[in-house]
Amino acid sequence: MKLTKTVWAAVMATALAATSLTAHAQSRKELVQKLVAVQQASLEATARGLAEAPARQLVAAAQPILAQAVAPEKREATGKAVDAEIKKYLDAAGPIVRASTNKVSQGAVLSGIEGKFTDDELKQLVTMLESPVLKKYQTMLPELSKNLVEQAVADARPQVDPKLQAAQENIRKILDKATDGKLSQMAAQAQAAQAAQQGGQQGGQPAAQPKGK
């Protein structure tokens, strides 16, 4: 009888422990979900910044060409065409990057805080109370943001890169047409100069001396 009670007690203890672990996992997952939800505005800003960064680079590259190589009477129309390509890229890439950021956010936050915060500390973070825990979390924000950005970029890149390349090529064609082919000529001259420079560097290297017997 005692053996039966002992076995039953062990079974109950195991079941309770498993239930407790499951409840803990669910509770922790819910806390992370709430933590991500609290930071949704920040996540949106991160995603928007990721999508807009390449667009800013495209604009920065196009502006000098518009100012220096495009005829004055063509600048306004050419600028509008470039703006349209930038908008087309942002309209296509923005939702992709935003979806990727939302997709990886929970895993990125969970992996970043795993083992560093208890459930009670997570509850304090979610409620955004003024506490040393909040300061502790804030010191980790750069690392969490870095991890999130890396994962979001890796997830979105296969879909975004073709759109970015298409935008670059379309803008190049717009500018090349507006400059009557000068952009292509400048690119060809730059490539030729680079090839000549590399050839000169290789030709200027001293020949290897034969080893004496």
Automatic annotation (TrEMBL):
Alphabetical keyword list: Signal
Region (Disordered): 182-213
Signal peptide: 1-25
Comp. bias regions, Low complexity: 187-213
Domain of life the protein comes from: Bacteria
Official protein name in the record: DUF2059 domain-containing protein
